[in-house]
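Summary for the steering committee. The consortium agreed at its last meeting that each partner would contribute one worked example illustrating the joint modelling workflow. Our contribution is presented below. We chose a case with several input lines so that the handling of multiple components could be demonstrated. No manual editing was applied between input and output; the record is shown as generated.
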Amino acid sequence: MRDRFRRSIGVPVALVAVFWLSGTAATGQAPVYRAPRAADGNPNFNGIWQALNEAYWDIEGHAAAPGLVTALGAAAAVAPGPGVVEGGPIPYQPAAVARKRENFEKRLSLDPEIKCYLPGVPRATYMPYPFQIVQTQKYIMMVHTFARAVRTIYMDDHKDAPADSWMGWSNGRWDGETLVVDTTGFNGQAWFDRAGNFHSDALHVVERFTATSPDHLLYEATIEDPKVFTRPWKISMPLYRRLEKTAQIMDFRCVEFVEDLIYGHLRKPPGQ
Amino acid sequence: MNHRLLAPVSGLVVLIAVMWLASMPAAGQAPSAAARTNGSSAAAYTAPRTPDGQPDLQGFWTNTTYTPLERPKDVTKEFYTREEALAIAKQAASAESEQTEPGTIPDVHYDFTQFGLDRNQGGMALNLRTSMIVDPPDGRIPPMTAEGQKRTAARAEARKRMGGATDAVQNQPLSVRCIIMDRAGPPMLAGAYNNNYQIAQVPGYVMILVEMIHDVRIIPLDGRPHLPQNVRQWMGNYVGRWEGETLVVETTNFTDKTAFRGSSEHMRLTERFTRVAEDVIRYQFTIDDPATWARPWSAEVPMKKTIGPLFEHACHEGNYGLGNTLAGARAEEKRAAEAAANKRSN
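What follows is the complete predicted structure of the assembly.
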């Protein structure tokens, strides 16, 4: 009885569902939101932005974990996060899995963030500090708080990286509502996070920035590195506009804070 | 080895560079002097506008120069003749590109036949001024107040208590530590190399990227107040506004450690950027620090259009020299101690 009843309304429900699905598919093809325009007619991404997630600890899903510095207790504990990697774990090649594990185990001495080194791409984007986009027609600058890392995205003068660098060499273009940034020329010394996820100098990052509201950007990055991964993979997350009137990129010059860490063993012993 | 071959080449390069300088108008100098003396806008030039109506300062610029901040003591005039300025540039360029003595520390550290080219090949503006300082009229930093002298002595004393220069990383100069280049500013002065800047403008902001240590200032133009007094930053806290053709940037909230030419942390810096020609920005700055100098003093230097881009200057990341300097000092101490021990046991 109840089964027969269900069957009779089952068909119209399925039909409605199909209609609804086709509706979402259509909106998925064309972006729903059209960003305000800059003077050159392109979407205007000028502003101060920040990721709000725990990917800076580990881009993969991870539970809360104790920190490595006993004295800092809960203040430096690993905050749990569901991860920003799409479609399963990072596809490391077998040899790279071992290297990743070693990085994790020795992260206190190997993580470049701890030494105040330039964070690289995409790590700079989701560090827990604001960054500012300064968007002109020819150059889009991304000025990060941490270590004052600066990226220049060349919009009309695309060329290959003249040399390897920490932040890479970025060529950009507009794809409708989306800023597409193609970055290579890395020196292979940066990491993805504090968990030891890493890449080589063959890293190729294609980032897509798309406004989804006046105060949100969807950030997607496709990661390719034939020396480390078996296939390209992707991370994505929203970026949020910092709305405070006082929002600004302040001076986080961390070199001074790591000098004893890096050079302390070379200090002249007392009494000599 | 390589550079010894290059030495004769560099002489030729210097010649070419100086000939190139000679072919240029003395950018920014005579017009600015005229502008000050007769009060008229000798700069008939009006900068193009950005889409939001700001005078357009965008692009790549260099403030590289042979003009000293302070007027040399044996010079009494404000301007050189064109011939004098060229002769000085030529002399400075050839001195800078000279082969260093093989085996000396400078020779190991830098190949000056290469490094020396940076300034004289970089396309600097010919500056007829005998000093960057335009006020006081003698072209020199005013005498320090008693308070300033006392602070300078106290700083020297504190520094001495820290021990020798190679005893600890903190005893090394800020620029060697890649914390801040004392000349990258603000105020922005030139050194021997990497005197390049990129300016970008968007509604509400002017960004100035300094090649040295990828230092960057994003100067807000929205009339916001300075940060609270207790917030001190290496480059200070800067806010800007347009006065006609001129970008005016006011910076306060410096740290006590920045100490520009002995300044206090209360130094107030006013910088003025005026595009006076298609390829020249007149850069002027005024230092106001009554705790150090009885009167404000001002300087100016042209910034000449140059070619980009600026490449990443990862100073700290590649700072092998600093670690090696300290390690070398420890090794020498160890060797000396061993020698002394051997002497005792013999």
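The interface with chain B takes residues 38-40, 46, 116-118, 132, 134-136, 139, 141, 143, 147-150, 152, 154, 162-163, 165-167, 189, 245-246, 248-251, 253, 255-256, 259-260, 262-264, 266-268, 272 of chain A (CB under 8 Å). Residues 47-60+81-263 of chain A form one domain.
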